[in-house]
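batch job 7 of whatever, protein = DUF3137 domain-containing protein
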Amino acid sequence: MKTTSELTDFYYKTLFPTLETLEEDRKKLRQKIIKVGVFYTFIVVLLSLVFLSSHINFDIIVFLLFAYIGIGLFIYKMLIKDYTKDFKHSVIEPLIKEIDRNLSYTPELCVREHTFTRSKLYKKHIDRFRGNDYVRGTIDGIDIEFSDIHAEYRSKNSKNKSWHTIFQGLFIVSDFHKHFKGETIVLPDNAQSTFGDLIGNWLQSNNFARDELVKMDNPEFEKEFVVYSNDQVEARYVLTHTLMQRLLIFKKRSGHPLGVSFIGGNIYIAIEYNKDLFEPSIFHSLLKYKIAMEYVSTLHLAIGIIEELKLNQKIWSKQ
């Protein structure tokens, strides 16, 4: 796999001319969206004043507000459809190919729901599952697939139904064609960071939805992550000092919550971005360094974790 430096060079030397062209298209599209938005809002307000002047009702106002937002989002998606398609074809697809020629990219597909569920990273029942930007192939002899995922559950009361995000971000699966004996789950340490060491530790130790708590001998890692496993010995074989350092570096550089599980012959990595990572922003420049590097560094760091597991043959010798 190419280094981050090599991928960054490719991004700027090969893709930057394309980005400059797309940047001009983006500016024109942004102006068009603003004009359409203003006109659409004016029409909605005008019609509301005419038809609601003598029938003001709170429920009707709420309904119209949701309808205004829903129709507005539909119009927005229609307006950016061609631009998004051009961006993915011209930028994301060549970038994926540059990472490794054995990777294939399909913008419309995503990792399957049962694969996501099999990771056991999230226990909540899923009511709506979608995603895009599916990549599949082989890197240095390791089978890998990843895509953007948005998993949600629904709650409802007597009046309304609401959708809540379980996970939104980049989800990566790698198949080693070997097997872990147990199941090990690494999650962000939300309990200790929220409630402190005493209560946080108690909550972690009494998490009945998970297997046994595993205490690692890396204080920095323990501050950021919590580990559960049904095989304490194997969990410590898998989470070597080097791998824990890679996870810490990933967390520090990306700044996003990260979950990892080791189940069957697979490693699952879930990085919460709370947005669609590969969608181009209409209201921010494509030429900003930070935006460019987010695509490159995220993939590189994640694949680096998988490569570390490949090198660590000790974990497979336990079979």
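notes: The mean pLDDT is 83.
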